[in-house]
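ok so heres the complex, two chains, lmk if somethin looks off
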Amino acid sequence: MNLTPEEWTTIFLSLRVALLATLICFPIGLGLAWLLARKDFWGKSLLNSLIHLPLVLPPVVTGYLLLIAFGKKGVIGAFLEQTFGLVFAFRWTGAALAAALMALPLMVRAIRLSIESIDQRLEGAAATLGASPLRVFATVTLPLAAPGMLAGIILTYVKALGEFGATITFVSNIPGQTQTLSLAIYSLLQTPDGDAAALRLILLSIALALAALLASELLAKRLTRRVTGTP
Amino acid sequence: MIEISVKQSRPNFTLDVNIKLGHGITALFGASGAGKSSLLNLIAGLQQPDSGRIRIGSESLYDSKARINLAIHKRHIGYVFQDALLLPHLSVRSNLRYGIKQGGMEFSSIVEFLGISALLDRRPSTLSGGERQRVSIGRALLSAPRLVLMDEPLASLDIERKREIFPYIEQLQKKFGIPVIFVSHAIEEVARLAQHVVVMRDGKVVAEGGTQAVMNLPDSHTSRFEKTSILTGKPASYDSAYGLTTIAHPAGNISLTGQLPHGKTPVRIVVRATDVTLALGKPKDISARTMLKGTIAKCEIDGSPIAIIHVKLEGGEELSAALTRKARDQLGLDEGQAVWCLLKSVSIDERWIAST
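and the predicted structre for the whole thing:
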């Protein structure tokens, strides 16, 4: 199956968008997951609900809200453009931002569950050995939560590869700019005689998703073995 | 000197403890739910009391009035947990090194002391319970603690493994001079290891003092199987043909199986009240090899079928015997009466013997 330059562009763009989305989503997701798993504070339920909102809202709504906030006239968008020259609307970075937001609940859930499953007394034991809270987090919590973090990263990446509704609403469908695999498939399906070309991309996206899942399965097994110390 | 004076209220449970501990091995003894582990957690900083203070020497770890609450990692208190709590993602070596302090104890000497050099590259999940507990002790020691807390360090171990760990705990204090507070609900552990006992019940201290004195207190334990006494004496001779050691005691010779290091240091022998038989005259045709002479100091009798007889042995030590109330009545045992206390040598093994 020889790919045309346009198809390559679409694939690389999708991979790039998914990668950036994961990079944005991971630190934020980790912080939120830790907060929800280990701390009690006022408004915790509200925060939890807000994080899960993209999961239950129609993606078009999420995309529209992003457009309002991060568009050129949006409060955050205008501020970012003026101070950092950073523009999200109708750019590939915007596609990544939309995908990151849509995947955030998945990332937070996966990491939160794995942090909650860590025996907190292990963290206490590390503290009695003279480890500061930061060191405990870095040397006990993080490594033991690694399988969950990996799961969160893979889920986010795969979700970002396939994100459609929020992306098309926020950054539109510009070939070479914001047209990821799913948007390209959608466009082809709208074109007469586009079915064959669409099928190629469909097969490609199935292959990509499958490869990502298989890789994560393998990695997760290894990591779990590492963490628990079972041979 | 370790000074603990704390109050902590929880729904259905109040901890109210006020004790001063010296530098030896102290046992916190009591049934589960008495607040022993909570007290350890308060000392380590894993929990906070509502009020009070905790001091080691002149340093306050916690003082509600002065608003001092030292963070766990700044307290320098080693903690050996019941289930060891080794970090599962690290090797034994990394676990031992986790809290290592400059100028603290030498890594190699601790590894050698605990006999764990062969385990260094293994993962905690591949260790036996006793091995895990030794690594846990080593990990605590290497963090250069000024106090070691042990929460039922032996509870999850079988008899053989317990015997394996006993000497290390004894040595902690003797060899390294680190005070130890350990929690236990097993009387033989307390009698064997502790110099000082704090008996807790429902969050309060009900008795405290030297181990021997506390053990002999009436009503300091919950069941007749826990009623024990401690006798001390010096190993006088060893009969190699039969493998028996004779301990010289003012009330008579105590015969024990196995060889004990013979010399000037007296040993502590823990005797369960259920292993003691009383006789009015000195019996002749009987298999028990140990007969100790004394007079009945007190008969503890309530409505139950069991009577606990406290006998003051010649030389001043006390020995408790658990009898049926019927036997006591039929023999007509009463205070002031002279009796012989018979012990089966085989009921005392090395678990029940400690050097003083």
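quick notes: Chain A touches chain B at residues 119, 121-122, 124-133, 136, 139-140, 143-144, 226-231 (CB under 8 Å). thats all i got rn
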